[in-house]
């Protein structure tokens, strides 16, 4: 009996300690707000939980009602920490004040990339490679991009003389996009290996699923949740370990051959055009062109980072755009098909150039509108990295360490920024302003803004356009007796994936 009482008392002490720690953390956060002229904290009914439930179940309504009551800048209490939301008037400050707000630090708050890709010593090098190689040499890459898109479409969709039902289109589109992306990143020599393509398809999901754990411990303190989810990483387990091994196994013989050929041929050697070669041109990674001194772990992790950045953006963008096109088939399909057919006839069926893709102005506007309306409710989270606090132009102040998220809805639903009926899908609204999908503007936040805007947006947009162009020319597409639905569903601030089955059928003109 005494032993039972001891156990019960021990449990009570532990529970009391946790409760006390929780309350102390909760009240310390709230008491800390009085030092600055912080944005108003939106009223909530339940202590500790705060706005968490509303944020997860009806984020759109929560942010809309908060903005109506408190103005464009306000704060929410979600999963144990205060988050500030900024609207259209203040967004540009967050995106452009690099010395005060960091997207990388904000993203690291949710996904600790520095622990996953731990061998990457300078993440800015990846950004430079994407900017200088992929965006800067897109004209030279566009031929390979098209060949591999056609190859992938033939492999995963094929000739659909009889209607072909694809029940899991997202998975199929990811498989298609993996082939051209792999070709551009690791090059012609090894991209076609099935295990490597599997890494391109699966790496992003391998990382994301690790962080699906609800941050319950953040109600006590966000630090506790960070420590909990990173325990496997700190003890040697990594979601990309398998992928890193595959990448190294495939690139190692290619690297050895390239370094050997470069030493043997000297100036006569012609460097391959791919991201892998960009790493090999770095003397810190390949000192003295000696294969035995190559930092393979660094290259593999850097390639993993490129995969993570490229695959999700492109596959999600294409998937949403195709669903938008199928859903509005009666309004836009024939007109976009005619544009595609006209450009194809001018090229006499030959490969497209970047100029040809740029002339797909109706398709470009359609893609931009799809990207605009498939954006999150709130996102692009940045961490305030000012020395002590930052003062917005509107007078509100946020302390260093505060997560600040952008209210996409305030920008997307603003008639002055978007034109008439901003909440409706109007495919050609961007033609009126000669505004291509790659252009960074205050009314289009999909690719961020400022110096740290997505450097790979040109590749992503061109790939989506080429894919849609080829689909329009070759197939008729419809849903598999299911409605896509006019109202998008969300999980928290993020759009839930659409995965309605699609039916592909080869056009009669293509058959004849």
TrEMBL record:
Keywords: Heme, Iron, Membrane, Metal-binding, Monooxygenase, Oxidoreductase, Transmembrane, Transmembrane helix. Heme binds at residue 454. It holds the Pfam family p450. GO terms for biological process: amino acid metabolic process. SUPFAM superfamilies: Cytochrome P450. The chain crosses the membrane at residues 7-27. Its cofactor is heme. Gene3D superfamilies: Cytochrome P450 (1.10.630.10). GO terms for molecular function: amino acid binding; carboxyl- or carbamoyltransferase activity; heme binding; iron ion binding; monooxygenase activity; oxidoreductase activity, acting on paired donors, with incorporation or reduction of molecular oxygen. Belongs to the cytochrome P450 family. This is Cytochrome P450.
């Amino acid at each position: 009996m005494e032993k039972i009482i001891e156990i019960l008392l021990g449990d009570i002490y532990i529970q009391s300690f946790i409760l006390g720690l929780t309350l102390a953390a909760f009240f310390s956060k709230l008491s800390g707000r009085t030092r600055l002229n912080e944005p108003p904290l939106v009223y909530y009914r339940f202590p500790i939980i705060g706005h968490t439930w509303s944020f997860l179940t009806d984020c759109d309504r929560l942010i809309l009602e908060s903005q109506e009551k408190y103005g464009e800048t306000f704060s929410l209490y979600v999963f144990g920490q205060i988050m500030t939301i900024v609207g259209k008037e203040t967004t540009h400050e967050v995106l452009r004040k690099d010395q005060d707000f960091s997207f990388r630090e904000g993203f690291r708050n949710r996904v600790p990339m520095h622990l996953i890709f731990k061998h990457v010593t300078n993440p800015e090098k990846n950004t430079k490679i994407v900017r200088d190689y992929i965006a800067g040499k897109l004209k030279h890459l566009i031929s390979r991009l098209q060949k591999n898109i056609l190859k992938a479409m033939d492999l995963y969709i094929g000739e659909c003389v009889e209607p072909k039902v694809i029940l899991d289109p997202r998975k199929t589109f990811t498989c298609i996009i993996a082939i051209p992306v792999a070709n551009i990143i690791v090059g012609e020599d090894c991209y076609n290996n099935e295990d490597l393509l599997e890494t391109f398809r699966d790496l992003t999901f391998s990382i994301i699923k690790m962080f699906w754990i609800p941050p319950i411990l953040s109600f006590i303190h966000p630090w506790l949740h960070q420590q909990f989810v990173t325990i496997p990483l700190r003890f040697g387990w990594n979601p990309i370990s398998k992928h890193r091994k595959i990448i190294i196994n495939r690139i190692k013989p290619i690297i050895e051959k390239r370094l050997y050929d470069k030493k043997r041929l000297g100036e006569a050697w012609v460097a391959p055009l791919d991201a892998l070669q960009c790493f090999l041109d770095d003397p810190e990674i390949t000192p003295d062109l000696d294969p035995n001194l190559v930092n393979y772990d660094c290259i593999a992790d850097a390639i993993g980072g490129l995969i993570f950045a490229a695959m999700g953006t492109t596959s999600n963008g294409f998937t949403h755009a195709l669903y938008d096109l199928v859903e509005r088939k009666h309004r836009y399909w024939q007109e976009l098909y005619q544009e595609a057919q006209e450009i194809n006839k001018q090229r006499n069926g030959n490969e497209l150039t970047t100029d040809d893709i740029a002339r797909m102005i109706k398709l470009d506007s359609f893609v931009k509108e799809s990207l605009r309306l498939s954006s999150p409710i709130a996102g692009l989270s940045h961490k305030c990295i000012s020395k002590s606090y930052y003062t917005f132009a509107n007078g509100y102040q946020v302390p260093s360490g505060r997560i600040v998220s952008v209210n996409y809805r305030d920008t997307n639903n603003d008639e002055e920024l978007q034109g008439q009926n901003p909440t409706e899908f109007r495919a050609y609204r961007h033609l009126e302003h000669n505004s291509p999908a790659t252009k960074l503007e205050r009314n289009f936040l999909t690719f961020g803004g400022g110096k740290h805007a997505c450097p790979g947006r040109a590749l992503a947009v061109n790939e989506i356009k080429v894919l849609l162009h080829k689909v329009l020319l070759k197939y008729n597409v419809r849903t598999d007796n299911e409605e896509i639905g006019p109202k998008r569903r969300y999980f928290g601030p993020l759009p839930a994936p659409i995965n309605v089955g699609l039916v592909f059928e080869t056009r009669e003109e293509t058959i004849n």
